[in-house]
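This section describes the prediction task in plain terms. A model, or a person checking by hand, is given the sequence of a single protein chain and must write out its three-dimensional structure as a string of tokens. No templates, partner chains or ligands are provided. The sample shown here is typical of the held-out split.
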Amino acid sequence: MTEGTLEKPSFPSNTADAAQGLIKLVALSNAGGVAATITVIGATAKNSCLMNILALPLSLFSFGVVFSIAYALSLSLRIAKHEGFEPSPIKWLVSDYFTRFSGNTAVILFVLGCLAGASIVAFS
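The expected answer:
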């Protein structure tokens, strides 16, 4: 580095590693919810009323997976932008609001899917 020039700070690697771990955790949790709900639906295939009700937690977990993927994409593009790359012409995709919204929504959908599934099993 020469005098008078500033070096661009790099994205902290431990933060990037933690974000990757969080993305994997949320995505796998929602995918596990999808698998568990499909298993329950298969086990209760003769009870069509229960199968229709179980579509609620299944859809919550499925949308959780979609929002996990959106969060991973947004966070990856934000890290690339921080490193100096211009990865996307879609500005809202790298916005702080979208990153937080997609990440929080994925977690909330997982919790709601768990609560819906548990309440359906408990009251049926």
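For orientation: The longest helix spans residues 13-43.
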